[in-house]
């Protein structure tokens, strides 16, 4: 059994924080996560089958970051292991065969995680709760000057 199974599927406090920040938009963002995650997993599996460590790095990195924004610790950890091993394999010019176990766990963990996250998402139309520590404060407003990047103009 892999050490990844010792990691909780989702950190509930991080999920609660993500839910508070995203509010009703969480359902929409989970839709993006579903699409991007499936695309990343396909790319990782194909690269693994071809023995192409370099092609595993970016999709594993992407999946790791997207998973951790929801507190999906196990999926993020598996993706991080794949990413780190693939980077090392690229540097040492090795085939990524040692991440076969992680690649095999990836799809099932993704599906289980996604089901849990979707069940925890607030329904569409639910207002976003106030951010802790910001209750009663006025929103920040910006001047009417046109937005520019870099140096000030005019």
UniProtKB/TrEMBL annotation:
Residues 22-120 form the HPt domain. Transmembrane segments: none annotated. The keyword Signal does not apply. InterPro entries: HPT_dom_sf, Sig_transdc_His_kin_Hpt_dom. The keyword Amino-acid biosynthesis does not apply. The modification Phosphohistidine is found at residue 61. It comes from the Bacteria. Residues 120-154 are annotated as: Disordered. Keywords: Phosphoprotein, Two-component regulatory system. This is HPt (Histidine-containing phosphotransfer) domain-containing protein.
């Amino acid at each position: 059994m892999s050490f990844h199974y010792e990691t909780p599927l989702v950190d509930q406090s991080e999920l609660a924080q993500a839910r508070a920040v995203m509010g009703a938009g969480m359902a929409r963002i989970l839709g993006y996560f579903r699409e991007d995650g499936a695309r990343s997993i396909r790319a990782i599996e194909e690269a693994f089958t071809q023995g192409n460590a370099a092609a595993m790095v970016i999709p594993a990195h992407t999946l790791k970051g997207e998973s951790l924004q929801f507190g999906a610790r196990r999926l993020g950890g598996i993706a991080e292991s794949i990413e780190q091993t693939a980077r090392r394999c690229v540097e040492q010019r090795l085939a990524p065969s040692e991440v076969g176990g992680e690649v095999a766990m990836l799809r099932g963990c993704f599906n289980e995680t996604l089901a849990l996250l979707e069940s925890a998402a607030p329904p569409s139309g639910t207002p976003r709760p106030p951010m802790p520590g910001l209750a009663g404060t006025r929103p920040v407003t910006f001047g009417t000057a046109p937005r520019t990047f870099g140096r000030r103009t005019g």
